[in-house]
Amino acid sequence: MDLSVRTLCLAILNFGDATGYEIRKLSTEGKFRYFIEASFGSIYPTLARLEAEGLVTVREEALPGKPARKIYSLTESGRTEFVKLLAAPPAPDTYRSPFLLVAMCAELVGPDVISAAIDHRISQVRSEIETLDGISQESECQPAAQFILDYGRHCMTQDIRFLEDNRSRIENIARSAESAREAAE
């Protein structure tokens, strides 16, 4: 399964009706933020295609003094399509990390920058763990949702543990490179 905005929209609507704005918010700040980020520029065309294919329906809800908002619902055909997408083998996870680029260039930036980057990364991961804890507490998590929250928490806890247990390795690489540069001057 290739995770796309299409799959994301179907997934979110599988759990309940939503507006395009709510789908965007869930994909950037909510419990779906760990799967794929979707922009408004990709969500609305995708929802239009899903509606044209009969996979979602849309209804307008009038708001006093504001434009009507469109609320999307998954159809039975949409649910069938979503289950079909889920049945395909998942694509490999993608992982991008600005921290790892800094670590890869440890010889260039020196030990102070590396130490600060590690501290910052640990702080970021702890913040993400707090976010997962908040998601877990804010709603009645279904067992499958609790599983993925626990999995995420485990991965992040191991990330912190690795950095704390091994930070001296990369700090020493940066320190050695800095000493070599100073000796060459």
Description of the molecule:
- The chain is mainly alpha-helical and 185 residues long.
- It has helices at 5-14, 20-28, 40-52, 76-87, 98-104, 106-109, 111-138, 143-184, and strands at 56-63, 66-74.
- The protein has a two-stranded antiparallel sheet with strand order 1-2.
- The radius of gyration is 22 Å and the shape is elongated.
- The mean pLDDT is 91.
Q: Summarize the helix and strand pattern as letters.
A: HHHEEHHHHH
The main sheet comes to:
2 strands, antiparallel
What's the number of domains? 2
Structural class: mainly alpha
List the topology elements.
Layout lengths: L4 H10 L5 H9 L11 H13 L3 E8 L2 E9 L1 H12 L10 H7 L1 H4 L1 H28 L4 H42 L1
Antiparallel strand pairs: 1-2
Helix pairs in contact: 1-4, 2-3, 7-8
